[in-house]
Amino acid sequence: MNIDVFTLFPAWFDWFKSQRHVTNALELGHELSFVDLRASTPLKAGQVDDTPYGGGAGMVIRVDVVEAALRARYDVEPLELCGQRRVVALAPGGRQFDEPLAQELAAEPALTLLCGRYEGFDERVHDHLASDVVSIGPYVLSGGELAAMVVCDAVIRKLPGALGHEESALEESFSDALEGAPEYPHYTRPFDWHGHTVPEVLLSGDHARVREWRRERSRERARPDPPAGAAG
Ligand code: ADE
Prior knowledge:
two-stranded antiparallel ribbon, single chain, alpha/beta, about 230 residues, elongated, 8 helices, binds adenine
């Protein structure tokens, strides 16, 4: 898979790129690059943003700046790029990122992530240059960089070989193996911690019972909490 992240702060991703599952993926031939939006701006003095039409606080990243960055990177008409690769703009108002979307993106051969800053992108970036607008949650971050790291992390750990221990990805929270439910609880030593002991079934050596117990705990976690004050 080839992932390109367009950002005003490529250096922020240095730490991310050094994480084990990411280095594993890169060693397997996957690619992860960071493209500085400022490097190709057609405006003077590295300008990338402008004041919003209609007035109001903050600055907006210009659509022509994003267009120029995409053209410089891919050498194609940016308006046609979405037909060739998934182009995801990160913004708080977008489609909520979840496990099915992570799975969907992990199956793509190529992914472009656009990180907004300040008040975000000119809406025409969402409408004409991106195939998707994605939010990592209903809150406002100072920019799309952390959101892009979240998306990259969730996607990269799904690439075969990235984790180095494949079962972890197979039976983790929200996976098909767990019928989309959150993962069951895990325990390790000590068996007794301040009187809080580990469920006996996990020490039974009976794999079928362990499997059933885990499945049931997972299903339990998927059930919505009863409304406050409800009986039973
Ligand atoms: N940019 C700012 N807030 C964001 C969010 N919640 N998700 C994605 N991108 C963002």
